[in-house]
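Appendix B, record 7
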Amino acid sequence: MRTEEKLNMTMLCDFYELTMANGYLSAGYQDRITYFDAFFRAVPDKGGFAIAAGLEQLIDYIENLHFDEADIEYLRGRKLFSEDFLEYLRNFKFTGDIYAVPEGTPIFPKEPMVTVRAPAIEAQLIETFTLLTLNHQSLIATKANRIVRAANGRAVMEFGSRRAQGTAAAIDGARAAYIAGCVGTACTISDQLYGTPALGTMAHAWVQMFDSEYEAFETYCRLYPTNATLLVDTYNTLKSGIPNAIRAFNEVLKPLGITKCGIRLDSGDIAYLSRKARQMLDEAGWETCTITVSNSLDEYLIRDLWLQDAKIDAFGVGERLITARSEPVFGGVYKLVAVEDEQGNVIPKIKISENVGKITTPHFKKIYRFFGRDTGKAIADYLCVHDETVDDSGTLEIFDPDATWKRKVVYDFEARELMVPIYQHGKLVYERPGLEEIKRYCAEQVDSLWDEVKRFDNPHNYYVDLSQKLYDIKQSLLRENGEKNR
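Structure tokens (predicted):
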């Protein structure tokens, strides 16, 4: 079977999910309602926050969730699964509930991005794809947002398709980068599928194809007069590239009354060349000509360019964005946090580890984000049990769950729930926003964070606090487990 024919992604799961699901059925647990949280433990690049992305693809996956006859025959051939289980899979569909933070939301370690409430087999079988799409797109969105913020308002274009780890990484990575603030992508199919604007003009091969650099530039300006950005570093940037570009602009664009044009630098001392290019263009009367730069950029190199007084209008960022090269793993996990008994009572569950950072926060939860009414800035996130509410008409004392003596009274604040229903009883209830709406929302939410949280180096620790009720439940489970294992 060719991979492009396998559009149903139901079998994109870890094999243990299938053996566990078969075991759940054999043990009579197939109808037991479970709660799983998808969350992450550390922000990539030691940053102050991450950006949630990938929900759209999770929805598409759930909508098409089923086992084909070819899938069932493959599993039968493994001689591990009961016929009852294979028959169960033949009629399989998702019937549970999913809650999630909207795409584009700044998120923090140990708080749920997605919560799945579903029968045990259903919740277990969607683990891998849920993590795959959330981990990848959140990673790329987080990296892209760092780069966009480093650009100080200049446009950032995602140029990394050819360096991405596979087709899906290129296509969905371009989408995630756009959500996080990029103005477009070199990946044409991502524009076709998602509406992320496809951008680009020429490569060095275009310039080399012609008998002279000027002929290459003149031809391009003639063919694409309203989209003339010329790559000027094929031979000699200052001695031939920029002079030939100016000549082409003068002889082709100026007679047409076109003043919008650009050059791109892809090698050499970018800071120095951009300053010289700006001087040469301005002296030639092309003050409106923009300068775009590329060549293995990231947020730190872009920040350094500003320190060197570079004259840059836009950035093309490739491999270090699309692969999140500095830290290419998001590290999201999917953990059981509660089950329901026969009466429908929610029974919290906890995973305990000698590595304190891997101890989970139990129970069916919801997240509030507190915003200062005077500033509009985010103050802290507040994890509480699903049936708790926050009264934001007065004051509230919050505390650091890892250092409980660190306490703060919040006042004049607005409490907003972050997670929204996506599926209820297997039915999609979420009205999917368009990509432009997600992008705007992301920019607004990042703007709500204090600058101290957005620092690249040693950012302020944004607190994710537990309610007293949730903290007490967690401590009770820890004590009970300790007593059992004495």
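Remarks on this record: Residues 151-322 form a domain with the TIM Barrel fold (CATH 3.20.20.70). DSSP finds 16 helices and 21 strands in the chain.
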